[in-house]
TrEMBL record:
The keyword Nucleotidyltransferase belongs to this UniProt entry's keyword annotation: no
Domain Enolpyruvate transferase: 7-423
Pfam families, sorted: EPSP_synthase
Cited Gene3D superfamilies: Enolpyruvate transferase domain
Catalytic activity: 3-phosphoshikimate + phosphoenolpyruvate = 5-O-(1-carboxyvinyl)-3-phosphoshikimate + phosphate
Listed name of the protein: 3-phosphoshikimate 1-carboxyvinyltransferase
The EC number(s) this enzyme carries: 2.5.1.19
InterPro entries (UniProt xref): Enolpyruvate_Tfrase_dom, Enolpyruvate_Tfrase_sf, EPSP_synthase, EPSP_synthase_CS, RNA3'P_cycl/enolpyr_Trfase_a/b
Function description: Catalyzes the transfer of the enolpyruvyl moiety of phosphoenolpyruvate (PEP) to the 5-hydroxyl of shikimate-3-phosphate (S3P) to produce enolpyruvyl shikimate-3-phosphate and inorganic phosphate.
Protein source organism: Companilactobacillus mishanensis
Binding site for 3-phosphoshikimate: 21-22, 26, 166, 168, 313, 340
Length: 427
């Protein structure tokens, strides 16, 4: 339980958000598949990433946390990965589960895969079906965890088209093929986040991209390398919106990863009238920028279609921004929100309504009538155990006129353990 601060004086200053979660997971996994020592700089230290590290250790990788900013992964090559002698616990992390299941099926590693209550409700048939099509042998509980990965024989050459707009599914299939030494072609017409195919060449893997199709030739090995992880735009998103909707604010968020498959939130907020400036920095593989925002009068817009995958995790905080915009914002094509850590269409609507926002859920998004001041008089809000909901509500509380109590604040450890420290530092 946490009493949330308001920001009566505005938010001013600069901050650095922790490393990107998606990139941290992948750097660890690819390091474990390589032969030798990979150095990861600025890895996110959060519960989801710890789930990935623990599983990789059970598969035989040595992971040494040298300091707050340096992690070394000693891999023994794909063939050096071994059958774990304990059931694998993926905690709350969809990314760990889906990517590592593909990797293990491809490497022909038998394993049992578990997760927490939230993860056990999330759909796994989206990976089981395409992986089974290429030769994996995976049992589930009606498409849910726990999974049993049995001995698998992945086709030596296959071509697939992504059926769900999910980078986790895309990466699961690519990793299955890569680990099996197959020749892989995978078409992603959704343009989901591209960190897997962007990072593999740094490990010496040949990746050809032609239009929407990713091709990895057969029999690739991974060479150890150094990966520098940029700040997570999904974490920066909370401060971007906080700076825009809190009167008298100017905030600079430094060293944020601005890969174009992740920056839908910037496009949408600018279209809503946000004053955001992007100062590009040196590029270490993934583009990095300092992002400066000043208080802005936003207006409602329609958000939907192909931009959705590039802002999927930011939709809860975009809804909050829309409650402070003039006019109506309509968000559609976002049915994926039903199958995140919570049903984020339900939880966002339920909790923001408690604060006086006018948010109507639809089957694939929201209709938000903006311009509603957020009220509070000892109102209790609940993150439903979902980190992004807890952080969104904490930003909402900044602009309330009273006191808001967050009943569950612990979930921020999933992606942003230092969130409340950063918050206290700004108010
Ligand atoms: O690949 C990734 O690292 C992620 C992809 C997204 O999930 P989907 O690909 O399932 O939409 C996102 O919601 C998640 O936080 C991280
Ligand atoms: C959906 C998320 O993560 P995951 O799917 O990895 O649990 C998230 O971080 O918002």
């Amino acid at each position: 339980m946490k009493s949330l601060p308001t920001a009566k004086q505005g938010l001013n200053g600069s901050l650095i958000v922790p490393g990107d979660k998606s990139i941290s997971h992948r750097a660890l996994m690819f390091g474990a598949m390589a032969n030798g020592t990979t150095t990861i700089l600025n890895r996110l230290d959060s519960a989801d990433v710890t789930s990935t590290m623990n599983v990789l250790r059970s598969l035989g990788a040595d992971i040494d946390i040298k300091s707050d900013t340096v992690t070394e992964v000693v891999g023994h090559g794909i063939r050096g990965l071994k059958k774990p002698n304990i059931p694998l616990d993926m905690g709350n992390s969809g990314t760990s589960t889906r990517l590592l299941t593909g990797l293990m099926a491809g490497a022909d590693i038998e394993a049992e895969v578990h997760g927490d209550n939230s993860l056990s409700k999330r759909p796994m048939d989206r990976i089981i079906d395409p992986l089974t099509e290429i030769g994996a042998n995976i049992d589930s509980q009606n498409g849910h965890l726990p999974l049993q990965i049995h001995q698998s024989k992945i086709a030596s050459k296959f071509a697939q088209t992504l059926k769900v707009g999910s980078a986790q599914v895309k990466s699961s299939i690519l990793l299955a093929g890569l680990a099996a030494g197959s020749d892989v072609s995978l078409t992603d017409s959704f343009h989901t986040r591209n960190h897997t195919e962007a990072m593999l060449p740094k490990f010496g893997v040949k990746v050809d991209i032609e239009g929407d199709t990713i091709h990895i030739p057969a029999d690739q090995t991974l060479q150890p390398t150094e990966i520098e992880v940029p700040g997570d735009i999904s974490s920066a998103a909370f401060w971007i919106v906080a700076g825009l909707i809190t009167p008298n604010s100017k905030l600079k968020i430094k060293n944020v990863g601005v890969n174009e498959t992740r920056t839908g939130i910037i496009t949408v907020l600018k279209e809503m009238g946000a004053n955001i400036s992007i100062d590009m920095k040196d590029d270490f593989g993934e583009p990095i920028a300092d992002i400066t925002v000043t208080t802005s009068q936003l207006h409602g817009i329609e958000v939907g279609g192909s931009i959705i995958p590039s802002l999927i995790d930011e939709l809860p905080i975009i809804v909050l921004a829309a409650t402070q915009a003039t006019g109506t914002t309509v968000i559609k094509d976002a049915a994926e929100l039903h199958v995140k850590e919570t049903d984020r269409i339900e939880t966002v609507q339920e909790e923001l309504t408690k604060l006086g926002a006018d948010v109507t859920p639809t089957s694939d998004g929201f209709i938000i009538n903006g311009g509603t001041p957020l009220q509070s008089d000892n109102i209790h809000v609940f993150g439903h155990g979902d980190h992004r909901i807890a952080m969104m509500l904490s930003i909402a509380a900044l602009i309330t006129d009273g006191s808001v109590i967050l009943d569950d604040d612990d979930s921020v450890k999933i992606s942003y353990p230092t969130f409340f420290e950063n918050l206290e530092g700004l108010v």
